[in-house]
Amino acid sequence: MSDSFIPISKPMIGPRERELVLDALDSGWVSSIGKYIDAFEEGFARYCGTRYALAVSNGTTALHLAFETLGLKPGDEVIVPDLTFVATANAVAYTGATPVLADIDPETLCLDPASVRALITPRTRAIVPVHLYGHPADMDALTEIADAHGIAIIEDAAEAHGAEYRGRRVGALGKCGVFSFYGNKVITTGEGGMLTTDDGDFWQRARRLRDHAMSPTRRYFHEERGFNYRITNLQAALGVAQLERIDDFLSRRAEIMDWYRQDIRTSDRVRLNRVKNWAKSAYWMVCLEADGFDTARRDAFMQALKARGIDSRPYFCTMSSMPMYRQAPVPVAARKAQIGLNLPSYYELTRSEVRRIGTEVNDLLKTMDAV
Ligand SMILES: Cc1ncc(COP(=O)(O)O)c(C=O)c1O
Predict the structure, then answer these.
(1) Which among 244, 276, 302 is the end of a domain?
(2) Predicted model pTM
(3) Among positive and negative, which fits the CA dihedral 332, 334, 335, 339?
């Protein structure tokens, strides 16, 4: 058994990635025009089951572009989960609109529809389900609320490429879906993002805003303020190669999750990812929660795990705990942020490494009296 350090995540870059990136480089099309951008957008739309996809510079700009395309402005409210990566709330705030923080379901870690319903006001313009750690949100319940009030759903699927809700891929379940291709994601382009939508007008407008909203008929004339949120052909070449292998990546993630389920001793006080019967998770992150933890004990556990050569990450901090969005704690989200952590999961992680992680986790939980 090797005792080498096990990181939380590693990208899987192979010969095909090298081949396509070098081809893009040799073609001279190194900026934001080129065949790989078109191929990546077409392939990703097909994969998600949407009519359109738009590749952008990262997941945060994808979110911002979606909100700008929706026309959010100061005074508007957008419901986001209190437990998410900060980009979800920040991208709302970039438009001048206000992120309104809803609680999460204790099993899926995604938006709790009852909490969302209670936060709807005449100013609510959108709901943003975040498919956290790869598990889809309860989209039927959220769609019902959105439809009843005539408001849009923008899916934050940054962590959930290939996840399914009742047999339908995320990214195709709202007005627009948003993805990230950061190095630790299910597929990567280094930095990169994507918008998916069935709405041709939405796609056209997002496409124009992505490129400084330049007039299609008059070069260097701009009818409104846009952005440079373009991706490069080099990044898209990497994306095309990664997309060819996404099924393999996802089945390996599911297999790794199965190994963890065999090796970590769970109970009603120690839990791994819970998956609803209507969901297929992308298992972006392996999630471990122990009811015996608080923030200090969870952090001490992670420290001890690191000393034994195993990396981990705490769950995200809640938005309501941060200076920009400070408010009274949101109960389920606040508790989860104290007791949750993520364990390593990446393509090359071996069966024996997961066994080693399981042994150390079981031992430390027992030592810390957290079982
Ligand atoms: C839920 C969520 N939304 C948005 C983002 C932003 O993506 P990016 O890091 O590509 O800007 C992330 C990213 O890491 C994320 O986890």
Answers:
(1) 244
(2) 0.98
(3) positive
